[in-house]
Amino acid sequence: MARVHNFYAGPAALPLEVLEETRDELLEFRGSGVSVMETSHRSKEFDALHNETIGLFKELMGLGDNFKVLLLQGGASLQFAMVPMNLLGEGKSADYIQTGSWSKKALKEAKLFGTVRVAGTTEKDGVFRSIPKQEELDLDPNAVYCHLTSNNTIFGTQWRQFPDTGGVPLVADMSSDILSRAVDPAPFGIIYAGAQKNLGPSGVTVVAIRDDLLEKCSKDTTTMLNYHTHADKNSLFNTPPCLAIYILHKVLNWTKKQGGVASLEKINDAKAKLIYGAIDGSNGFYNCPVEKDSRSYMNVVFRLPTEELEKKFAGEGLAAGFLGLKGHRSVGGIRVSMYNANGLESVKDVVGFMKDFAAQNS
Amino acid sequence: MARVHNFYAGPAALPLEVLEETRDELLEFRGSGVSVMETSHRSKEFDALHNETIGLFKELMGLGDNFKVLLLQGGASLQFAMVPMNLLGEGKSADYIQTGSWSKKALKEAKLFGTVRVAGTTEKDGVFRSIPKQEELDLDPNAVYCHLTSNNTIFGTQWRQFPDTGGVPLVADMSSDILSRAVDPAPFGIIYAGAQKNLGPSGVTVVAIRDDLLEKCSKDTTTMLNYHTHADKNSLFNTPPCLAIYILHKVLNWTKKQGGVASLEKINDAKAKLIYGAIDGSNGFYNCPVEKDSRSYMNVVFRLPTEELEKKFAGEGLAAGFLGLKGHRSVGGIRVSMYNANGLESVKDVVGFMKDFAAQNS
Question: Do B237 and B345 sit in the same domain of this protein?
Fold first, then answer.
């Protein structure tokens, strides 16, 4: 089978040149005589790669010296626990804004470690169709932090503009839209992301933590879940996921070569305009349940007139070389996930397929 | 540079055919049209790989249906916390046998979660030269479990025969000698191992937990550190480290093709006989500080007459194509780590180098 248009929600498409370079270098890493999987994480070759990766991430995100970047394991799901475990405790409270399944999971873990408030939610009858507006939020000015999920893969919503918390540090799970657009890091205390969308393969989790929040972290937490451990040891307290970091390095390099987030944002805007245009111009054959100003530019969810047509659409799409069009099992429907590695051409192609399908099945 | 003899302690040598297969298949995974890094962890292709991996591990280890095998992240270091977090608590006590740096780290974490006893230690003046004998142990018959480190990479010792705990389940960190020899799983309640020695690349941690211990695990632990979460969801609660699991699968297949642990044990025995023979037959030029019946078959540590000669040995060894001969930074000296992927030939070659070096520098 030839390589296909990959619209999986994550793990997701990676740039072809990243895969090809990884393949070509797989038996030998930087003249060391061994594969990157076989080299010591204390070797000078790996150490250089590790620090370059952190440097590239900081550069692309525009993070100043007041941020430490950690390369961890366990995915965003482990960060759901680590954030409150490190920052909550007696007499401390955090705000959690609810916009979907992932923010609910983050809230659930936080409740184990201290006082948490729901500072806003758009849940109605078990589903989320929008991002809360500023005036819909009930923010605590004394919160240690305010947690949000920047993009919601399942419900297809995205914070198009981050809320004003009046100085309370934002803690953001950016797993599914990191590096897809320019973000001013100033209001953020912690930004974390599992790699498997815009950063690389699954198995490495990037955490950027601002110095003032790091200082507030408890020192009593169990070693591996303590941000101090990883900040103090530059994420080399124990063996890191070397191969995943190596591919992350390549994806960051690729991102830089594309012109960084400013250039990718333009392409992502064009992709979103194209596919939402096709949905809104389909005379109701395709229907996006998300409010217009909350629509995700990464995960486009929509419905067809019947579930049977949705099944047919996903099946014929797969046969035509479009992988991963089925919506998340919890909500059904169709989902087109289009991260940085999905170029404008692949979105043009799927939009062409959508138009043909609508014409044939209306 | 040509591929070299890799004696790193971990990440360590992998079988060449595993690397070559990974390279050849990197752009397309099982006819899916995308790389294994790009496929959904919910896809039928990945699901099959995942279950095959677990099945192969159980088969090679001789684990019955009473063991659940989990594929996790965070390395053995995270297991140091997860084991007591799940199994200790009020009124419960665990035994910890101390044989080196890793067992000390495991003990340190356990103290955060309940009562722990040191049931034996061979530490003298900060170093460990042996494994405790049965009569040197002070075991608690009421302990929830008894923890040990099966092989000690830094001090070069190994449990050649596991202790009799009178029915108290052993919990073993087998990171550095798993699948290197036949082990009767009957006395073990939990066996865990970071992959980066005999199993694959860093970034995946294998945990085998017996049903009766799983039943004793707390249900209140934070979600990602709760063994129930991963057992209930077959290690697919969140996105697993797919690429690392894919290579683990290949290493397990390779292990099976070698004839399994019984065949590899014979080779490992021959390798150990060869190199310890060279050390003991060097008229004291090489000196292994470890008691003979505690010597590791995986990590062979030895000293030369002076630190200068050790430096020269490691430097000339590297120039001759032997990578990673320097001992761990905490103890100095020389270390030859020879896991399953290091064949008898590579040990013959390094022993030849040792003989030449001794002749030239005695």
Answer: no
